[in-house]
């Protein structure tokens, strides 16, 4: 009974303390935008935490969603009318100073009127849209459904019916002059709308470019934020939209000794509740954590015993890894850290996130990578698997990374680097063909160069298996981006060349880069084919343009 009473008392006091600050900033996940006034998190925060129409929500996977009336301008018969459609979007960033949010993945929950003379002004939107990049609006056309589908138009499912379909096309095209659209007639023009806003029916099937949404309602005043406070609406958000401050002190509208006394009482109750909760619950979690660590360590030792007869790299404790890297003080980029072994040998240490990785897959991957012997794969010389701590120890490259030397390499050296990276990827993905291995980010800062300027790619155990075909196509695309990025960052790309041979090298690399970054994965070559193109004497043919109008 005493324990039950204690738990009930703690819950009551904690609920009372937290209810005093129920409008504090929050988010849907560790990478999601901060949610605070004038927005509020629906179903988690009361109405007075934000303006009406500024309610955000969270998905199961931590994405911030927003239901709003999307503002669209429709033009017909020299008349511009603003309408707003109920729309769901994903929110990626909120700039409270500029009063704008970056969103994407728009999906309309309502539709345009069927006829231009029926356009009416709907409820006004609290937001204005700003597309990121060029946009000239769209035109709606009514077309026969017997025509073939062509790339470039977007079907509006909610307006289409049996025997006809309504499509949306960029306004700067006169599509009625094209044979596939000769039977179409224009309905009306509209302003910018996000990609595929009307062509999908579920949130899971949506993708598209990002855009900005601006709001005009005043955000939290400077007076509140300068004093380290937050904002909310007075009187519980019941129509009175006057803003008040709260936080470390009582709201500006509440003054007097009684208010200060309440603030002190709430602080004492909160602190006492947290201390009491910690004393009561902490021993349980500490014991459970110790028990889980012991079980994890037993599992690791058992798995290593099964691999004992195999040629495994040297194992280091996590304490040794800390000593080698001097507590990870010398980070080169991302998860790579320079270090020095006891004998003076310089190494590169890569830390591994073990939160979603099976320890058995990690140990098996270490064994496979340790056996790899290839000029263009960074040699693994050691590893660490100490409870939930994982790390890999690789040989050190004197010339550091490709990113440091892009502007100093000549064209022949650049071709040699590009060919070496392609051979390394081809070796891992095709010759080894191990589905439990992963490649680090294929970018200049993760391509290491040895004394002879031979490139080395970094291979590490993957978190589980992957789709073999998809991963290979993604590697090809990443390789193409690498080649084009290196070419684009060279200052002497078009000037100062001594002979035609260097021009041919740059041209070949450019064509290979374009092939690897084709829009459709099926059009991308395999890494084996990329190696053949780079080693061949003939110039590769130019890849097709997937968005050319001749495809209609």
Automatic annotation (TrEMBL):
PROSITE patterns per UniProt: PROTEIN_KINASE_DOM
Key words of the record: Glycoprotein, Kinase, Membrane, Serine/threonine-protein kinase, Signal, Transferase, Transmembrane, Transmembrane helix
Pfam families according to UniProt: GUB_WAK_bind, PK_Tyr_Ser-Thr
Compartmental location: Membrane
Superkingdom classification of source: Eukaryota
Membrane topology: Single-pass type I membrane protein
Sequence ranges assigned to domain Protein kinase in this UniProt record: 322-552
Record's signal peptide: 1-19
InterPro entries found in the cross-reference section: Kinase-like_dom_sf, LRK10/LRL21-25-like, Prot_kinase_dom, Ser-Thr/Tyr_kinase_cat_dom, WAK_GUB
Protein's UniProt keywords contain Glycoprotein: yes
Assigned GO CC terms: membrane
The protein's name in its UniProt record: Glycerophosphodiester phosphodiesterase protein kinase domain-containing gdpdl2
Species this chain originates from: Phtheirospermum japonicum
């Amino acid at each position: 009974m005493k324990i039950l009473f204690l738990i009930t008392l703690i819950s009551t006091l904690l609920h009372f303390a937290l209810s005093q600050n129920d409008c504090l900033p929050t988010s849907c996940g560790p990478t999601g935008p901060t949610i605070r006034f004038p927005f509020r998190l629906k179903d988690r925060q009361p109405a007075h935490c934000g303006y009406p129409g500024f309610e955000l929500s969270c998905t199961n996977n931590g994405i911030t969603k927003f239901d709003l009336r999307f503002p669209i301008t429709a033009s017909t018969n020299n008349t511009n009318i603003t309408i707003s459609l109920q729309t769901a979007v994903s929110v990626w960033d909120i700039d409270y100073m500029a009063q704008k949010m970056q969103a994407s993945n728009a999906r309309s929950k309502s539709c345009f009127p069927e006829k231009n003379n029926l356009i009416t002004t709907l409820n006004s939107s609290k937001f204005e849209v700003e597309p990121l990049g060029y946009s000239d609006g769209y035109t709606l056309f009514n077309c026969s459904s017997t025509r073939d589908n062509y790339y470039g138009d977007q079907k509006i499912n909610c307006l289409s019916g049996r025997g006809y379909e309504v499509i949306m096309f960029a306004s700067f095209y006169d599509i009625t002059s094209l044979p596939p659209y000769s039977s179409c007639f224009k309905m009306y023009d509209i302003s910018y709308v996000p990609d595929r806003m009307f062509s999908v029916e579920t949130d899971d099937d949506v993708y598209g470019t990002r855009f900005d949404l601006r709001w005009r309602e005043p955000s939290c005043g400077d007076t509140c934020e300068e004093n380290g406070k937050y904002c909310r609406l007075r009187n519980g958000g019941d129509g009175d939209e006057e803003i008040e401050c709260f936080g470390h002190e009582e709201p500006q509208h509440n003054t007097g000794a009684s208010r200060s006394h309440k603030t002190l009482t709430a602080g004492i109750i909160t602190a006492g509740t947290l201390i009491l909760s910690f004393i009561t619950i902490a021993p349980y979690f500490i014991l459970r954590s110790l028990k889980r660590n012991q079980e994890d360590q037993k599992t690791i030792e058992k798995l290593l015993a099964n691999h004992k007869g195999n040629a495994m790299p040297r194992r280091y404790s996590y304490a040794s890894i800390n000593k080698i890297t001097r507590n990870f003080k010398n980070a080169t980029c991302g998860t790579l850290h320079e270090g020095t072994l006891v004998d003076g040998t310089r190494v590169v240490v890569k830390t591994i996130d073990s939160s979603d990785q099976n320890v058995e897959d990690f140990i098996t991957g270490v064994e496979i990578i340790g056996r790899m012997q290839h000029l263009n794969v960074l040699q693994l010389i050691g590893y660490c698997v100490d409870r939930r701590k994982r790390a890999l120890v690789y040989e050190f490259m004197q010339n550091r990374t490709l990113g440091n030397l892009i502007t100093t390499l000549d064209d022949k050296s650049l071709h040699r680097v590009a060919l070496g990276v392609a051979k390394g990827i081809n070796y891992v993905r095709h010759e080894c063909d191990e589905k439990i291995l992963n490649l680090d980010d294929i970018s200049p800062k993760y391509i290491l160069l040895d004394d002879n300027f031979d490139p080395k790619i970094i291979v590490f155990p993957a978190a589980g298996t992957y789709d073999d075909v998809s991963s290979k196509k993604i590697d090809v695309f990443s390789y193409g981006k690498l080649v084009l990025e290196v070419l684009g960052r060279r200052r002497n790309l078009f000037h100062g060349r001594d002979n035609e041979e260097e021009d041919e090298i740059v041209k070949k690399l450019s064509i290979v880069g374009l092939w690897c970054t084709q829009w459709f994965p099926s059009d991308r070559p395999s890494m084996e084919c990329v190696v053949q193109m780079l080693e061949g004497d003939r110039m590769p043919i130019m890849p097709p343009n997937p968005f050319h109008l001749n495809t209609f």
